[in-house]
Amino acid sequence: MRAATGAFVTLAILQFAGVVFLYRPLVDAIPAGQPLVPRAVGFALSTALLVALLDWVSRATQNSVKGAMTIAIAQLLLVDVDYVLSGERMVVAGAASAVVLLVSWGLTGLVHGRLLELRRMGAQ
Asked: From residue 124, how far is each of 107, 115, 117, 118, 119 by CA, in Å?
């Protein structure tokens, strides 16, 4: 079996089982609660976590733009493609979201990479 085929089968089985037997029963049984923090605080915290992820992926790929695009494409595939295909989001909304993701992550990757370069130049 090819690696990609094996990965497809494994992911399909695990995600299907996880959604059907764990996630969906919990979502259906437990109502959504109140926000844990104010909206602005939540935005700042999630942005900080995303930047930490970018920094880690950029170090692993040794390229800030490649790291940023890896995150953007993963986010696009995990949310936009799935939502459009399942009918939870219109194609136009999915396309707009894709543009926002690709532009914002691409520019963030450029800034991250440039600042790393400047820091390295200053350290020499």
From this structure: 26, 14, 11, 10, 9
